[in-house]
Amino acid sequence: MASTIKQTTLRCLVLLTVLFNFSTVKAQTPFYKDASQSIDLRVKDLLSKLTLEEKISLLGYRSQAVPRLGIPAYNWWNEALHGVARAGEATIFPQAIGMSATFNDDLLKQVSTAISTEARAKYNLAIAQDRHLQYMGLTFWTPNINIFRDPRWGRGQETYGEDPFLTGRMGSAFVKGLQGDDPKYLKASATAKHFAVHSGPEATRDKFDAKVDEKDLRETYLYAFHELVKNHVESVMSAYNRVNGVPNSINKVLLTDILRKEWGFNGHVVTDCGALDDVYLTHKTLPTAVEVAAAAIKAGVDLDCSSILQNDGIKAIKQGLLTEKDVDQALSAILRTEFKLGFYDDPAANPYHAYGADSVHNDQHLALARKVAQQSMVLLKNNNNVLPFKKSNYSSIMVVGPNAASLDAMIANYHGTSSKVINFVEGITGAVDKATRVEYDLGCDYKDTTHFGGTWAAGNADATIAVIGLSPVLEGEAGDAFLSESGGDKKTLSLPASEIAFMKELRKSVKNKPLVAVITAGSDIDVSAIEPYADAIIFAWYPGEQGGNALADIIFGEVSPSGHLPLTFYKDMSNLPDYSDYNMKGRTYRYYTGPVQYPFGFGLSYTTFNYTLGSKLKATYKKADTVAVTVNIKNTGKFNGDEVVQAYIKYPNIDRMPVKELKSFKRISLEQDKEGTVTLKIPVQDLQKWDLATHKWKLYPGSYKLVLGSSSADEKLVADFKVAN
Prior knowledge:
3 domains, five-stranded mixed sheet, six-stranded mixed sheet, Immunoglobulin-like, Rossmann fold
């Protein structure tokens, strides 16, 4: 009995000791580091422990360390437009405009999932060595969802094209993959940029005032941003320019009234880099940096990609322009993102903690990059079905042109680095057997119109592949595209005159042998200048590190081309409004009625498809309804292939309605002679338009048409329906 009492006493003492030690540990662990608590409570606790000076030091992208609270320095500026960028080895996917040409949002989500996996791995590896470097973090300033409204804009290549619906769908898919699906932790943070009404001119972006009415603002320029907010994008970046006189970074109507109050955005707002400096230096709408700091925070900015908030925030408070409560509100938004990323939790509790070197640039990601590049390339011409080449018919191939072996033409801008980039010469060479002769010559440069190489060799080859076009130094962001004559933008749609002259010479040399033109660019190009000289034309965009292999796959028929243009290819720019005019009238397939080279959504295939309706529409729909249609697709050609079924709406004949508008799309893969079905759904409320009189969305009753086809100009099936109040 005595023994039992002693054992019980001992157990009680041990239990008390454990409880004491546990409570001591709990007491020593700050509340904001307790992962079992809500994020809002943890943020509130951390705020209570920070001094005003410390709070201000955290408001810039170069966030300062607070050692006494265990807060390390962190650089918020990180890029991942089409792969982790500027951070060493990473998989380089096709440029954003090329990925949009896939019309495959499911595939794009796979891409951004791979990107965030590599990002987490690189972050883990850097932090393990106590490295807190720019571009090695988890807060990514991507995607760019501005509308590519004018073909001159150099940065249009970073977008998903000219259509708000396509941009919203593709951008949302990218965000979902980048941020992950864990219920507690963000895999990485995505940013919808540049908010708002921002698409050139590049040379004057720091002082430009975009004039736009409420209808175009809501229906075109804000549409995709709203879609990404609905899909829980973590961050929004304000743009450099003004909108109707107000710089975006101090625009309370946009950043607070619409973004937060109307749309319910609960992430953080970051400025574009140096945008706050522009407010007083170039826009000159406020006289001093101190006033800008106060105006930005009061308008809804939380994080500054410059140093104004950190340098002048205290001064703004001392001058009575700002309160500590204002600072707390901004900092709370930033801290919430940090908590979602797991910065203050035990790393082992994070589901992404184990990602390491084997998650970066691996075989699976390379295969994905190749697949995306395959689906992005657009076949514009295939005279007499010259493509695909049957390998056994060609004993010698000439690959020629200024972009045939160009690294820049593969990787575009905002890119990573890779030791495995396969250019077009390498892709073609690697695809044929060792008994096939492949030659390469630069052929021409971007300037000289009289001296050419490779033309004699092309005449001796069975077939020639000429890779021409633009590069990211000819079109792109101000400062980066240093060979652009317009501060990053294009003055014309023309290819370099040297390339046009070169194609003429090539045609003379190869005579009746096949000549395939491959064009690299991120925008609308005047293809007609070289079209007469090429038997087939492939638009390859800037296709990423597997672009050479993807081109070879298409050239030799391993896959049928299935890319579709996410923008209109105009015949020339004479029918377009002035570049600085932001009114949508006369722009994009939605409002343009003039002649085009190739319509929005266009893309040829090696095979053909037949459409039949599998279901009928109702006669009349109301706002709460959904227009749903099933379409039977049959591959009626001689190759396996993918079709992208596009659904457009034609509206009642009311002033300022679009000519037509993409409202659904679906890609389907079909083997030769096989059939499949796709179901397309369009919520009727998505057909609402902005009413300038009431400043609200309005569903207009009347007669509508559903148009199904493979481009905006294709009408394989048409169904009428009415919308009632």
